[in-house]
Amino acid sequence: LFKPQKKKFILILFSMVVCLLLLLIGVLYVMQANIKEYARAEAASKSEYAKIYIESTVNNIEKTVKEIGIIPVFVRAVSDKNSDEITELLRVIFESSKETRRFIALDTVGNLIAVYPHTILTSQNFAFRDYFSQVMATRKTYISDTFEASLQTPVTAIVISAPILDDKNNLLGVLGGSINLDWMEKKLQEIATEKNEQYFTVFDKYYRRIISPNPDLIGKVVEKDNLIYQLSDQKSIIGEGFNFAGNHMLQAVQKIPK
Questions:
Q1: Taken in order 182, 46, 161, 80, is the CA torsion positive or negative?
Q2: Single pTM value for the model
Q3: Radius of gyration of the chain (CA)
């Protein structure tokens, strides 16, 4: 048996050890909470920046096709159906920015007049596309739904289109510019931090993937348990969920107005 003095010493020592452990646990808890708060703040900031970038890209393309559609030299070329001159004009504009994947000019019945960059299309009439019919009906710019482009090698596409109008406001056709989704994905990944396994996924209004780190998931609807379904009327949301690989992770979701 221990003497009273030794018992007292052991009790004090034990108490100190317990206090140190509790202090360590408290410090670790605070550190973990701070790390989580930092991660949430970073995710919110990066998702907001990505939203601004996407909106800016869409607005730039919308402004471009709208302005091209009323340029006198372009309008005259469309009126004459001079595909060579139209192609050259589109080439100059295309090479000034990487935001647009391709331009397409259609006449009033949806027949192809010109496309740049040149590609082999599986159709020569696009009257069935919403980016044509909506502009013809409203004479306003329009952002299409996601669709599979009529190319020999199909790709997911979103086209922003505008009316081609002469100086008397006569409608001569439709000009469309497809968003360069590959370039957009590259720029978004520059916002994310790859070493921290951060990445962006972009969905259309039907919750189909437009941009994803897994190419096999492009065009597929996101799983029903995804955080995106909790957005409802909110503009943004941050929470924990599972990614396409089933990994538990922090997610920040932003709603992009049409």
A1: negative
A2: 0.81
A3: 28
Judged by DSSP in three states, 243 sits in coil
Q: Are 196 and 213 in contact (CB under 8 A)?
A: no
Cα–Cα distance measured from residue 114 to residue 168, given in angstroms and rounded to the nearest whole number: 23
Rounded Cα distance between 36 and 258, Å, is 32
Could you tell me if 149 and 167 are in contact, meaning their C-beta atoms sit under 8 angstroms apart? no
Amino acid identity of 54? I
The sign of the torsion formed by the CA atoms of 106, 110, 113, 116 equals positive
| pLDDT of residue 131 exceeding 90 | yes
- The residue type of 36 is K
Measured CA angle at 106 (ends 103, 109), to 5 deg: 160
Q: What is the DSSP letter of 97?
A: -
The alpha carbon of 242 is separated from its chain's Cα centroid by a whole number of angstroms, namely 19
Q: Per residue, what are the HEC states of 181-230?
A: HHHHHHHHHHHCCHHHCCCCCEECCCCEEEECCCHHHCCCECCCCCHHHH
The answer to whether residues 117 and 102 touch, using CB atoms and an 8 Å cutoff, is: yes
What's the CA gap between 53 and 59, in Å, rounded?
Answer: 10
Cβ neighbourhood burial of 78 (10 Å; 0-12, 13-18, 19+): buried
pLDDT in tens, 201-219: 999 989 999 999 888 899 8
